[in-house]
Amino acid sequence: MADLDSELRQAVTDSEANAGGLVRDPVPEPSAKSRRSIGLLLALLVGVGAMLALVFSSADDAAIYSLTVDKVVAEKSSLTGRNLRVEGDLVKGTLRHRAEPCEYRFVMSRGGQELKVRYAECVIPDTFRDVPDMDVQVTAEGELTEAGDLEATHIMAKCPSKYEMQQKKARGEAAPHASMYAPEGSGSAAVPAAEAQ
Asked: What is d(CA 73, CA 139) in angstroms, rounded to the nearest whole number?
């Protein structure tokens, strides 16, 4: 075993002595093809970075804040000029239609606060009607003006659920929208004059 140890020591000593005289291969310079690949990779990274910067910088302008009427009224100054989705209830008797220029105006309320809304379109959802004895829940999307009114670009009205309708039917009440679309002579009221203009 002693011979083995001495031989191992001798081999290590010899290899260390010869290591100083080893010639190392030079590191090859990158070829033109690999330089092009690195350039392409850098160009792609810059392009992706520019696209991400564009998306994130414009995301704030395109964002729609979903709030209730009371929160919009409370934060009116900070929300002016922003796109909003406002939820509330139609205030009874405020739905007005004007033929020239075609527009609807109404007031929404929630939490004891009211918000005036102007919708400059001729067509509204069928369920968006001022119905007696029934609260109409409305969602309006648009921009809050300096005056604190909402210039709506989209209106959505929540329909009563089938369970609410079944309860009304059990109490002997008619469906809230049925009388508005009943044919003349059926004993039901026609479309209100304010909406027929």
From this structure: 15
